[in-house]
Amino acid sequence: MSALGELQQRFQRAVLSENPAPGLFVAEGTQPVGGFDLYLQAYRARLAAALRDNFPVLHRALGDDAFATLARSYIDLHPSHFRSIRWFGDALPGFLADAPERVPHPALVDLARMDWAMRAAFDAADAIPLSFGDLASLQPDDWPGQHFVPVRSLQVLDLSWSIEPIWKALNDAADAATDEPQALPHALLIWRPALDCCWRSAEAGEAAALRALSRGASFADWCTVIAAAGDPQPAMTAATLLRRWLDEGLLAKAETPA
């Protein structure tokens, strides 16, 4: 390794550990000089700012001090490995789920999940929505093998708490008063049909069907998925869901290869 490469590695280790080694821009027994101390402070400050940006509602729910403590713990165990700082924080929901005591209420884990999914949906690639007119050419024999494609922004979350009203209230106003969240296992859909993100809860069968579509299931396949969820009329339910998804902009036109 070149002298420059070795110096760069030592510099990185010193910043990550917040402990400049003797001989790296500092004399033993002295304080960092030449602006090196700024790097020690700026690294974590920038990552903490990225977490606040990516988890704005969680930040508001916790408050500045508690969020800063959480951010520092997360950064210590999950240093950034992305070229774009936009994606820093991808492991935060799992980090909280693994040790719920890191937050004052377990529902805040779901709040973090919703924050991250909303940001991911907003940044997802645009899609041309599928319309009723696009289905006009389908013949009866075409339907069993027909594949429908969800928009790329679709996120299907399994949540344990009814955090959506809290998320909306805090997203609208930082000082909003909120009720105690209630335990409620359910699925949440998040997607972006145009400029703004949409979200709503979904029954287990609908969530399973959308996950199946994301894996490339045919119309017949996801009727089977709906039936497996306990629906006595899967074909009728599938038709009802298809109409709703078209109205909501949840499905995209299949991309034509260039």
From TrEMBL:
<dbReference type="InterPro" id="IPR018640">
    <property type="entry name" value="DUF2063"/>
</dbReference>
<dbReference type="Pfam" id="PF09836">
    <property type="entry name" value="DUF2063"/>
</dbReference>
<protein>
    <recommendedName>
        <fullName>Putative DNA-binding domain-containing protein</fullName>
    </recommendedName>
</protein>
<feature type="domain" description="Putative DNA-binding">
    <location>
        <begin position="6"/>
        <end position="96"/>
    </location>
</feature>
<dbReference type="InterPro" id="IPR044922">
    <property type="entry name" value="DUF2063_N_sf"/>
</dbReference>
